[in-house]
Specification:
- The complex is a heterodimer of chains A (370) and B (319).
- Chain A is α/β, with parallel strands linked by helices.
- Chain A folds into two domains: 184 residues, Response regulator (Rossmann fold, 3-Layer(aba) Sandwich), CATH 3.40.50.2300; 126 residues, Response regulator (Rossmann fold).
- Chain A contains 13 helices and 14 strands.
- In chain A, β3, α4 and β4 form a beta-alpha-beta unit.
- In chain A, α3 packs parallel to α4 and α6 packs across α7.
- Chain B has a single domain, classed as ABC transporter involved in vitamin B12 uptake, BtuC (Orthogonal Bundle).
- Chain B has a two-stranded antiparallel sheet with strand order 1-2.
- The chains are: A alpha/beta (370), B mainly alpha (319).
- At the A-B interface, α1, β2, α3 and α4 of A face α1, α3 and α12 of B.
């Protein structure tokens, strides 16, 4: 008896999994793929909230061409295997499109799964350059990829009349990549790279580095790594009389930099993803978000909100819920103005402009550089 | 109902299953082969994942269950296999099938590297060394150029099998099912071999085993190597299935998860380990509907199982 019971239980569980695919013609099914469990769950939840906010606003206005949007959230747990399962689940549930994607590593293997099913996917946070080369044609990135930060940085340096640039990184994948890219883009723009230095993590005394840098008299110093060590480098540069431009990468985008470096950080430039607090046009969104979820929007909320609205816009332009038509409409996106700026795609379906914003340290806070 | 009757009843059912083993096995196998004709891709994806963990858990079972050596870095061997295939196919244009023997060789080497220096260590110390080994492999993969650094490798070629490209999830369902069956068969044969008995002896009493003429060093090394080869082969096919690998897959929590499958199911008992691996994958998926709470439910279920069946779902009977 007991055996029959347990077998029934297992079968019931399997049926629960399989029988989820419901169909309704007056509904548009949108899949949300974000990590809602695991170490990145907070970011995933922020993204999901922003998408749900966009959906409720669209539905309140009568949906898209009379169709209401329903969402299915699939947790990828920031893990490639779970992401593959989540993607297959969304495909099995016949979603019309997918929005989300936080961890690049977990998102990568799902692109093919969506691609095989022809489902359009709008990635609102994941931004590895590998996603661009692995794109089967249905993927659209609304976040700038890493190399765009180098472009924003070089633009700032040129605007400030920098001729000689010193770059410092910490030898890890992220900061080294950014440093190398900046070197490449800088050279293309006619900026001379006078120094390319590596600092070990956790080092306290940077006097040797500072002396070496001063002897090369750069017009700007670019720190591509993280705030904890960056703050010390900035402090010691200023103490030793280097008074020209200092810029830091998005890894140092934290108020802690000012906390550690104190007055020395004043006027330091920083590059950041477009987060709600630095976007003038995202004010209403930020307030609605706080009202609905009783918390501050996260770093990728604005982009996720834009991603969902872009998708809705594309479906409206496509005039049908047909997946191929949506992909075509997304590709043809021309004058879509999101709260994080306009969205236009390159032929590779990545954002045509760098969406990094330039911040400047004022007292204990970062402010948008105008 | 008291705990005792519950335990004896469940043991009774398990006994019943054991007596009708052959018929049940044939029936079960027929169902497994028939599933792809009816199930959707999601179910196949989850089941393929289950078979995959069955292979890994059985491999670890050899080290932990049979030889009694605690290994907290098992994901490293799996990483060795996955990266061997990934690097050889994507950077050197190797045929996928040719990478398997290479991966086996590297896994063997990794088994010797971890097994060699740790032979004299016991329990806690061994656990720490294996943990360190697991982390070393992951961090090396994260920082080396050839492994693609933190973002890993992409564009790993899909293998061809007699002219068909294995690119559907149903293909991988069968691939992993076949590998899991092979792993079960190999585990079964190993368990009842001279080597298997030697492992058991060493596990129960190392000194007595040595006194009886068992080469302790060789026996333990074999356990590591064979366990590593299981994971290495699983890793090859994992790389082929995902077409992209990154160091995040081979974290400490992955090693723990595999160990969990072994302990949860019942150390040293093949059907137990298979059940454990299945539970590991199926539980979080079945409860996907309840969202972020699913891992909490999973944890509670696991605690209950451990409370009422401390030896695992289907433990080995000690004679």
């Amino acid at each position: 008896m007991r055996k029959v019971f347990s077998v029934c239980l297992i079968l019931a569980g399997l049926f629960m999994v399989m029988s989820n695919a419901a169909f309704a013609t007056d509904e548009l099914k949108i899949g949300i793929m974000v990590p809602t469990t695991g170490s990145e769950a907070t970011y995933g939840k922020d993204m999901e909230n922003a998408i749900l906010l966009a959906v409720s606003e669209i539905n309140a206005k009568g949906g898209i061409a009379g169709k209401t949007i329903v969402t299915v959230t699939a947790d990828d747990a920031c893990d490639p295997q779970q992401a593959a399962a989540a993607a297959s689940k969304l495909v099995s549930e016949n979603v019309n499109a997918v929005v989300g994607g936080y961890c690049s590593g977990a998102t990568l293997p799902t692109l093919k799964i969506y691609g095989d099913a022809g489902i359009p996917i709008v990635l609102t946070a994941a931004n590895s350059t590998k996603l661009v080369s692995a794109n089967p044609g249905n993927t659209f990135l609304v976040n700038s990829t890493g190399d765009d930060q180098a472009i924003t940085a070089v633009n700032l340096f040129k605007q400030k009349g920098v001729k000689k640039l010193a770059v410092i990184h910490q030898g890890d994948g992220y900061s080294e990549d950014l440093a190398k890219l900046t070197e490449k883009k800088g050279k293309e723009a006619g900026i001379e790279i006078v120094a390319m230095e590596v600092v070990n993590k956790g080092e306290q005394d940077h006097s040797a580095l500072v002396t070496r840098l001063k002897s090369k008299s750069p017009d700007a110093v670019f720190w591509t790594a993280y705030y904890a060590d960056g703050a010390l480098v900035i402090k010691q540069l200023r103490q030793n009389g280097y008074m020209k431009l200092i810029a830091v990468g998005d890894g140092s985008n934290s108020p802690k930099l000012m906390e550690i470096a104190g007055k020395a950080a004043e006027g330091v430039f920083c590059f950041s993803n477009p987060t709600v607090e630095y976007l003038p046009s995202a004010k209403a969104f930020g307030e609605n978000y706080k009202k609905k979820f009783n918390q501050e929007p996260g770093p990728y909320s604005a982009l996720s909100y834009d991603g969902m609205n872009l998708l809705a816009d594309a479906i409206k332009r496509a005039g049908s819920a047909d997946k191929a038509a949506i992909v075509k409409a997304l590709k043809a996106t021309k004058d879509f103005n999101g709260i994080a700026g306009p969205i236009v795609f390159t032929p590779e379906n990545k954002l045509a402009r760098s969406n990094f914003v330039v911040l400047v340290a004022k007292g204990a806070n970062w402010e948008l550089n105008k | 109902m008291t705990t005792d009757t519950l335990v004896s009843r469940t043991t009774g059912i398990l006994g019943l299953i054991e007596t009708h083993q052959k018929t049940l096995l044939v029936l079960f196998l027929a169902i497994l082969i028939g599933i792809p004709a009816y199930a959707n891709n999601y179910v196949l994806e989850v089941l393929a994942n289950t078979w995959f963990y069955v292979i890994l858990c059985l491999g670890l079972n050899i080290v932990v269950g049979y030889a009694g050596l605690l290994d907290l870095g098992y994901a490293a061997f799996f990483a060795v296999g996955a990266y061997t295939t990934g690097i050889l196919t994507s950077r050197f244009g190797f045929n996928f099938w040719l990478t398997i023997p290479v991966a086996m060789a590297f896994a063997t080497l990794a088994g010797v590297i971890i097994g060699g220096p740790t032979l004299r260590l016991r329990s806690d110390y061994l656990a720490i060394v294996t943990l360190g080994f697991g982390e070393i492999v992951r961090i090396a993969a994260r920082n080396l150029k050839i492994t693609g650094g933190a973002s890993g490798l992409i564009g790993i070629d899909r293998p061809h099998f007699f002219g068909t490209e294995l690119n559907q999830i149903s293909h991988y369902y069968f691939v992993f099912l076949a590998l899991a069956l092979l792993a079960i068969f190999a585990s079964y044969r190993l368990q009842h071999s001279r080597l298997g008995r030697a492992w058991q002896y060493v596990r129960e009493d190392e000194d007595a085993a040595e006194a009886m003429g068992i080469n302790r060093v060789a026996i333990k090394l074999y356990a590591y190597i064979i366990g590593a080869v299981f994971a290495g082969i699983a890793g090859c096919f994992y790389a082929a299935k995902m077409t992209a690998i990154s160091p995040e897959t081979f974290t400490f929590s992955q090693s723990i998860l595999i160990l969990l499958g072994v302990v949860f199911g019942g150390m040293g008992k093949i059907p137990g380990v298979v059940c454990g691996a299945g539970a590991l994958v199926l539980f979080p998926e079945v409860f996907r509907g309840i969202g972020s709470m699913r891992l909490l439910v999973f944890a509670v279920v696991m605690l209950l199982v451990m409370l009422y069946r401390p030896q695992g779902i289907w433990p080995a009977q000690k004679s």
